[in-house]
Give the backbone structure.
Amino acid sequence: MVADYNKPFLSIAEQRELLEKRGMQVDDRAEVEHYLRHEGYYRLSSYFYSFRSVDKHGKRLDAFVSDANFSDVIQLYEFDKWLRTSLLSGLRAIEISVRVAIAHHMGQKDIFAHENPYCLNSSFVSRESSRRGKTWYQVWLEKYHHLLSRGDQEDVVLKFIETYGQKIPIWVAIEIWDFGLLSRFFGGMKFNDQQAVSRLYGVDDPHFFSSWLRAFNYVRNVCAHHSRLWNRSIVEQPRLPRRNEIPELKHLTERGVSSPGARTYATLALATFVLKNMEHQGPWVETIVNLLKKFPACSSVSLKMMGVPDDWEDQPLWIQEV
């Protein structure tokens, strides 16, 4: 049974007073009210959560732990903001690179490969989707043609359509695709074609790479909507390589972490691996290493909560080449 919401409206000052009443230590009331005014109590509440007390049954209480300090909450909030900003930048680079790789490879087979079902795997073309009566490829085409019909494309794309109509080659079409459309198209390609692309990024098994693209798309959407990321459960979990398949990534599965693919760190590590194979590793690795080192030093939260192993700095993935 759904209950009626009956909590009263609170002013900014009253919101701050409620936090103090529940045990949150406040060193600078003006700073607290600034964050409440410009970031919002509800948004910040997902960061308060880890600082709330737990009863004997494991249930989170309204009261905060004894050493909960608003400054620690803000450090966590700012860490998450920079994590999202960094990942959004890295995933953007991956998305563009994979677009070009797919267009270059598939364009050699058929310049209109995205609209030629014979260029795709039979399961994608014929298997019925959750939309009754439509295959996964038909659903993909619907989304593609919807994006194609919009008038907010890049000028170069609009000019091409104006000149040649809406049947456009794949190297133009990819400029219309979003990350979701891109990842689903890769999943619909034939195995040999998938492998030709995934090997460009150091991945021999394209089934792994396909799942990584879906995870990247999910995380990219979280970042774009400014949602909490650091300890989020990743719904589109990426498949992790077997222990000795990719040496730089073997630490993801050898530390006994429960469901490592569900942790943000796994997606961060996979994105880093792909970027290094794109020769993008210099500034990216340095940025992420410095960011992880700035994680708040307090008892209520830790890097382990996002799946980061204790010896992460010693892993080959994070060692920069000179």
Observations:
- Residues 76-318 form one domain.
- The longest strand covers residues 60-64.
